[in-house]
Protein backbone atom coordinates (compact mmCIF):
# COMPACT_ATOMS: atom_id res chain seq x y z
CA UNK A 1 0.00 0.00 0.00
CA UNK A 2 2.80 2.43 0.93
CA UNK A 3 4.75 1.42 -2.16
CA UNK A 4 1.81 2.20 -4.45
CA UNK A 5 1.38 5.66 -2.86
CA UNK A 6 5.06 6.43 -3.38
CA UNK A 7 4.88 5.30 -7.00
CA UNK A 8 1.75 7.42 -7.54
CA UNK A 9 3.43 10.50 -6.00
CA UNK A 10 6.53 10.04 -8.18
CA UNK A 11 4.37 9.54 -11.27
CA UNK A 12 2.34 12.70 -10.60
CA UNK A 13 5.53 14.69 -9.93
CA UNK A 14 7.08 13.46 -13.16
CA UNK A 15 3.96 14.31 -15.16
CA UNK A 16 3.78 17.82 -13.71
CA UNK A 17 7.47 18.43 -14.37
CA UNK A 18 7.19 17.01 -17.90
CA UNK A 19 4.23 19.14 -18.91
CA UNK A 20 6.01 22.38 -17.99
CA UNK A 21 3.94 23.17 -14.93
CA UNK A 22 5.32 26.23 -13.15
CA UNK A 23 4.15 28.28 -10.25
CA UNK A 24 2.48 31.51 -11.27
CA UNK A 25 4.95 33.52 -9.21
CA UNK A 26 7.93 32.16 -11.16
CA UNK A 27 7.07 34.15 -14.30
CA UNK A 28 6.28 37.31 -12.38
CA UNK A 29 9.60 37.13 -10.57
CA UNK A 30 11.53 37.26 -13.85
CA UNK A 31 9.54 40.26 -15.07
CA UNK A 32 9.80 42.13 -11.78
CA UNK A 33 13.57 41.64 -11.53
CA UNK A 34 13.94 44.41 -14.12
CA UNK A 35 12.13 47.00 -11.93
CA UNK A 36 13.88 49.32 -9.48
CA UNK A 37 12.33 51.62 -6.90
CA UNK A 38 13.41 55.24 -6.93
CA UNK A 39 14.70 56.52 -3.60
CA UNK A 40 12.50 59.07 -1.86
CA UNK A 41 13.57 61.77 0.57
CA UNK A 42 10.21 62.38 2.20
CA UNK A 43 10.14 60.54 5.56
CA UNK A 44 6.52 59.40 5.33
CA UNK A 45 7.20 57.63 2.01
CA UNK A 46 10.41 55.89 3.08
CA UNK A 47 8.65 52.97 4.79
CA UNK A 48 6.71 52.20 1.60
CA UNK A 49 9.86 52.63 -0.52
CA UNK A 50 11.84 50.20 1.66
CA UNK A 51 8.99 47.67 1.59
CA UNK A 52 8.77 47.78 -2.22
CA UNK A 53 12.55 47.58 -2.62
CA UNK A 54 12.63 44.52 -0.35
CA UNK A 55 9.78 42.82 -2.21
CA UNK A 56 11.20 43.28 -5.71
CA UNK A 57 13.54 40.48 -6.75
CA UNK A 58 16.81 42.28 -7.43
CA UNK A 59 19.29 41.28 -10.08
CA UNK A 60 22.84 42.60 -9.73
CA UNK A 61 23.75 41.26 -13.18
CA UNK A 62 21.52 43.56 -15.19
CA UNK A 63 20.52 47.18 -15.05
CA UNK A 64 16.81 47.67 -14.43
CA UNK A 65 14.61 48.29 -17.47
CA UNK A 66 11.89 50.02 -15.46
CA UNK A 67 11.90 52.58 -12.67
CA UNK A 68 9.11 52.96 -10.15
CA UNK A 69 8.63 56.39 -8.54
CA UNK A 70 6.54 56.58 -5.38
CA UNK A 71 4.71 59.91 -5.38
CA UNK A 72 2.27 59.83 -2.49
CA UNK A 73 0.86 57.74 0.33
CA UNK A 74 -2.56 58.64 1.70
CA UNK A 75 -3.87 57.09 4.92
CA UNK A 76 -7.44 57.91 5.88
CA UNK A 77 -9.37 56.82 8.95
CA UNK A 78 -12.97 57.69 9.66
CA UNK A 79 -15.58 56.41 12.10
CA UNK A 80 -18.50 54.48 10.68
CA UNK A 81 -20.30 53.51 13.92
CA UNK A 82 -20.01 54.22 17.61
CA UNK A 83 -21.47 52.80 20.77
CA UNK A 84 -23.22 54.99 23.32
CA UNK A 85 -20.70 57.20 25.13
CA UNK A 86 -18.11 56.35 22.43
CA UNK A 87 -16.64 53.44 24.41
CA UNK A 88 -16.25 51.39 21.22
CA UNK A 89 -15.88 52.90 17.76
CA UNK A 90 -15.90 51.10 14.40
CA UNK A 91 -13.53 52.65 11.87
CA UNK A 92 -12.84 52.26 8.19
CA UNK A 93 -9.26 52.87 7.10
CA UNK A 94 -7.96 53.32 3.57
CA UNK A 95 -4.37 53.36 2.38
CA UNK A 96 -3.50 54.45 -1.16
CA UNK A 97 -0.24 54.81 -3.08
CA UNK A 98 0.26 56.94 -6.17
CA UNK A 99 3.18 55.91 -8.35
CA UNK A 100 4.62 56.34 -11.82
CA UNK A 101 6.33 53.66 -13.91
CA UNK A 102 9.12 54.73 -16.29
CA UNK A 103 11.03 52.75 -18.90
CA UNK A 104 14.83 52.77 -19.16
CA UNK A 105 14.70 55.81 -21.44
CA UNK A 106 12.84 57.82 -18.81
CA UNK A 107 9.54 57.79 -20.70
CA UNK A 108 6.45 57.63 -18.51
CA UNK A 109 4.60 54.35 -19.08
CA UNK A 110 1.70 55.37 -16.93
CA UNK A 111 0.55 56.43 -13.53
CA UNK A 112 -0.40 53.71 -11.09
CA UNK A 113 -2.73 54.02 -8.14
CA UNK A 114 -3.37 51.18 -5.74
CA UNK A 115 -5.51 51.26 -2.64
CA UNK A 116 -6.89 48.98 -0.01
CA UNK A 117 -9.28 49.39 2.87
CA UNK A 118 -10.19 47.63 6.08
CA UNK A 119 -12.49 47.93 9.07
CA UNK A 120 -11.54 47.69 12.71
CA UNK A 121 -12.95 48.23 16.17
CA UNK A 122 -11.22 50.49 18.67
CA UNK A 123 -11.96 50.49 22.38
CA UNK A 124 -11.42 53.91 23.91
CA UNK A 125 -10.65 52.44 27.34
CA UNK A 126 -7.17 51.32 26.22
CA UNK A 127 -5.60 54.12 24.17
CA UNK A 128 -2.01 52.80 24.41
CA UNK A 129 -2.93 49.48 22.86
CA UNK A 130 -5.00 51.28 20.22
CA UNK A 131 -1.92 53.18 18.98
CA UNK A 132 0.12 50.00 18.66
CA UNK A 133 -2.75 48.23 16.93
CA UNK A 134 -3.04 51.07 14.43
CA UNK A 135 0.67 50.81 13.59
CA UNK A 136 0.31 47.05 13.03
CA UNK A 137 -2.76 47.67 10.88
CA UNK A 138 -0.88 50.23 8.79
CA UNK A 139 1.93 47.72 8.30
CA UNK A 140 -0.57 45.05 7.20
CA UNK A 141 -2.20 47.49 4.77
CA UNK A 142 1.23 48.34 3.31
CA UNK A 143 1.95 44.62 2.86
CA UNK A 144 -1.37 44.15 1.06
CA UNK A 145 -0.70 47.18 -1.15
CA UNK A 146 2.79 45.95 -2.04
CA UNK A 147 1.41 42.57 -3.13
CA UNK A 148 -1.34 44.23 -5.15
CA UNK A 149 1.08 46.66 -6.78
CA UNK A 150 3.62 44.00 -7.73
CA UNK A 151 0.89 41.91 -9.38
CA UNK A 152 -0.30 44.99 -11.27
CA UNK A 153 3.23 45.90 -12.44
CA UNK A 154 3.99 42.31 -13.47
CA UNK A 155 0.78 42.22 -15.52
CA UNK A 156 1.55 45.60 -17.11
CA UNK A 157 5.10 44.59 -18.07
CA UNK A 158 4.02 41.18 -19.38
CA UNK A 159 1.33 42.71 -21.59
CA UNK A 160 3.32 45.61 -23.02
CA UNK A 161 3.87 45.61 -26.75
CA UNK A 162 7.53 45.21 -27.74
CA UNK A 163 9.12 48.48 -28.81
CA UNK A 164 11.75 49.02 -31.48
CA UNK A 165 14.51 48.91 -28.88
CA UNK A 166 13.29 45.64 -27.38
CA UNK A 167 14.21 42.44 -29.20
CA UNK A 168 11.37 40.36 -30.57
CA UNK A 169 11.15 36.79 -29.29
Walkthrough of the structure:
By secondary structure, this protein is an alpha+beta fold. It has one domain: 2-Layer Sandwich (Double Stranded RNA Binding Domain). It is built from 4 helices and 4 strands. Strands 1-2-3-4 form a 4-stranded mixed beta sheet. A hairpin with a 5-residue loop joins strand 2 and strand 3. The radius of gyration is 22 Å and the shape is flat. The C terminus is likely disordered.
CATH topology-level fold name: Double Stranded RNA Binding Domain
Number of strands: 4
Tally of individual domains: 1
Q: Largest beta sheet: what is the strand line-up?
A: 1-2-3-4
Gyration radius over CA: 22 Å
Write a compact overview of the structure shown.
With 169 residues, the protein is α+β, with helices and mostly antiparallel strands. Helices cover 42% and strands 31% of the residues.
SSE map:
Elements: H1 2-18, H2 24-32, E1 35-37, H3 43-55, E2 66-82, E3 88-103, E4 108-123, H4 127-158
Parallel strand pairs: 1-2
Antiparallel strand pairs: 2-3, 3-4
Distinctive features:
single chain, about 170 residues, alpha+beta, Double Stranded RNA Binding Domain, four-stranded mixed β-sheet, 4 helices, flat
Amino acid sequence: MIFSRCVLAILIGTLLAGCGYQLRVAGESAELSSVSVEAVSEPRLQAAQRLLADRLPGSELQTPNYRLALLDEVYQKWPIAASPLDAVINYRVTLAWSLELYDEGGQLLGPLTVNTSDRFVEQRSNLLAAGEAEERRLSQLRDALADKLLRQIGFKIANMEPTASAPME
